[in-house]
Amino acid sequence: MKKIGILTFHRALNYGAVLQSYSLVNYLRKRIPDALIEIIDYSSSMEARYYEKKPVSYLLKKFDIKSAWGEYNKKRVFKSFSDNLPISQYHLQSDDIKQLNEHINNCYDIVISGSDAIFNWSGLKFPTAFFLHDIIKPKLTYAASAHRLFYRDADSEKIKYVGESIGSLTYFGARDKETERLASFCGFNGNVHHNCDPALLLDIDDIHQKTSERIILKKCGISNAKPIIIVMTPDTRVANVIKAKYEKDYNIVSLFISNGTFNNTVYSLTPFEWATVFSKAVLTVTEYFHATILSLLNGTPVLSLDSLDDTLGYEGKIKDLLTTRLDLPFLYLNKREIIEKGASVITERIGRIQSDFNANFVRNSINKEITSADSFLEHLMKLV
Asked: Which one of 16, 35, 96, 241 has the fewest beta carbons within 10 angstroms of its own beta carbon?
């Protein structure tokens, strides 16, 4: 029996990160039942410190007790969710990856790096483990991304290292065009396979069965029959527009990230509840990639705001998803347009979404996109 290890961001206090981890490992376990597949319990020290300091920063820098408490509560929720993941008994939290590489080479037959922004090394000690540079076993990336990495400014040694790493892969799967451009910039001229984000592979009906509507609505503070609009943005300018236009007739639920416009932000949803809550809404307004995906999986119209200014010459993952992969450009709005045209562009776009959103077209687009996982599965099964 082959033993396969997955390196990913399963310890992140982020709904999208843990759900894509859950999705990928379960997708592979169902399709390759004869292999032993688990998530390697590794995280960098710098990543861990970031999440440890976040509640403290709300207290010391913003004097925001509610958000600080919310961040502590979020940590508790995500820790309990780890029971849903097949995590290795081996555990390492370190920025020194030599020990990890030795463990992988000794204990796994195949290793997978991905998904998510595993190729973005900014804020981490370079080189990171996710490049698999010194792994001698068959190694693959699934939906690797370099989102928000301004790699054209990187020094030549890093570029050389990344190019060598990608060139040594058994299979290189990238999530977005910008990651393909990174590979080319680093001198890689081999095959690049596009893979969909693993969150698109979720069995959303199965996740719904793991949750309670009553508990979700209670956590969101909803006790009436008014329709729900979900907002996930720290941008008070956006939130103010939503509040002024829709607060009278809708329940507005602020999730995950605090916003001064709303009195309460819901931090206590489990990842399964978070994935389900979008099915209760008539609209999502978000800056988050995976909130966009989960809204679409639930058939919920979404306005997805891209905070990455597209004049910088780097294409963000939200634009790649909605304009290139799913052919849903009217759901996409770069926040630069709000600055240039005024806040009214938000409600104008919402009006168009409400009139033009076609759930069947969206589902067909998703079904087409998830076929991009096929080439990865085929390569992996040959190795098994």
From this structure: 96
